[in-house]
Write a structure and sequence with these properties.
Largest sheet: 7 strands, antiparallel
Strand content: 25-35%
Distance between the termini: 10 Å
Oligomer: single chain
Low-confidence stretches: 165-169
Number of strands: 9
Structural class: alpha+beta
Number of helices: 4
Mean pLDDT: 87
Shape: globular
């Protein structure tokens, strides 16, 4: 797993021995039931915190479709973009925050399978947002680390070839 961070973004990427279309089916799955973007531990905690401060928390179940589509709502996310051709998913958090929190996930073809890249971006609003940007950096690191690991576990479970065991994640 490769890790990168700036003041506004935190990124994790992993190369996987599975075809990009198969990985995309898991990344952008809108099926009913547990999904990495709604049920990863950091999002469960964040949804609870949001409810404590008067927000909606985790109000929306996955849409019960094969793939998420632009405009869908799931967990506390609004799907801003779901591009099947480019395998690019943009989720915007519908939570109380001093700015906009965006989670971008890309599945790119690679020589031996695919590359899954996730980036959390915080675009602060106002002075409180600027202060939050600094204070939130360690939390964003932890959130994306745990979320990316959850997605990798979900992808490993879906790996039909059996060449990539779940216990390696």
């Amino acid at each position: 797993m490769r890790r990168r961070s700036t003041l506004r973004t935190t990124t994790r990427e992993s190369r996987l021995p599975m075809p990009a279309p198969q990985a995309w089916a898991v990344v952008a799955s809108g099926r009913a039931g547990p999904q990495w973007y709604a049920d990863a531990a950091p999002f469960v905690v964040r949804g609870g915190l949001d409810r404590l401060v008067g927000g909606a928390g985790r109000a929306w179940p996955p849409p019960a479709t094969d793939l998420l589509a632009t405009g869908d709502r799931a967990g506390f996310w609004r799907v801003e973009e779901s591009d099947l051709e480019q395998r690019h998913l943009v989720l915007v958090a519908a939570v109380r925050a001093p700015g906009t929190v965006t989670l971008l996930t890309d599945v790119l073809p690679d020589v031996e399978g695919c590359l899954v890249r996730q980036t959390v971006r915080l675009d602060p609003s106002g002075l409180l947002g600027a202060a939050y940007l600094l204070a939130d950096l360690p939390a964003r690191e932890a959130v994306l680390e745990l979320t990316h690991r959850r997605l990798l576990r979900d992808l490993a479970r879906d790996n039909r070839s059996g060449a990539w065991p779940v216990d390696q994640v």
